[in-house]
Input
Amino acid sequence: MSLALGVNIDHIATLRQARRASFPDPLAFATLALACGADYIVAHLRRDRRHIQEEDLKRLCKKFRNKIHLECSYTPEMQKAALALRPYSVCIVPELPGEVTTTGGLKFTPAVQKRVGEMTAALQKKGVKVSLFVSPVAEDIRTAAKLGADIVELCTRDYSEATTQKQAQKLLQDLALSTLLAKELGLEVHAGHGLDYTNVLAVADIGGMACMNIGFAIIARALEVGLPSAVAEMKELL
Output
């Protein structure tokens, strides 16, 4: 059975924001991606608004609410935005000032657990599924379950940046064990961060995985072959 593919369209908006232009339009590319095999559209509303804007998400949710997977931090501001948008699902992610991209899973300090638990409950009360972006370690998987998450997205950054085959195999084992534990705890399992056409297959082959969320690699590939082919190629791998 094939895995679901969430296509992240942040970098369509990155290109647009570079010129503060009206194009390329994330909605148009989301429409095309879904028509070509994507199962979900992923978009990250960052506090610095470097790419996706609230207006993008309003339009996306109006047309494809049941296909929109919003990524955002756990601040009260982002909770308010997520509740107003009410996408199909929200992935709560860590966010550091000045970072180029998300650097890893949530760090579950007592304060973070309290805030994430509150946000999780508020979103679920409005019928929004909640995913937590976590490192593939047992303690964080258990914390996600304790906080009431519906989904965990396992951070594949370390795996995608492995420099040796031995290191990659060890990190794949961590992902596999984390997936098994998450399934035992009743969580749906997604994976993402740094996955591309050369490294995704080994992660997709892990039993129990439900969805791969991939953005940069697909958008970069689309510059060469077009978005329909880039999405279709990735979907075929899954």
